[in-house]
Amino acid sequence: MIVIDSISDNIARVEIDGVFVEIPRSALPTDCKEGDVIGFVKLDNSEILKKGADRLARMRSMSNTGGDIDL
Known about the structure:
Elements: E1 2-8, E2 11-16, E3 19-24, E4 37-38, H1 46-62
């Protein structure tokens, strides 16, 4: 749970489990204001990660460089 302590310019001061931190205002929902409480939702992104790993494997198999590319 996050409690928005204050918002000034583009910085929000928030409290997370008794610890105050400053974060960019843009990291919060646009309609947030001081005193609001924000919760967390844990998402299962395992399918997204698997699709990314599969795509990377396909791209590597099509590559003719045989490994890392030095720039």
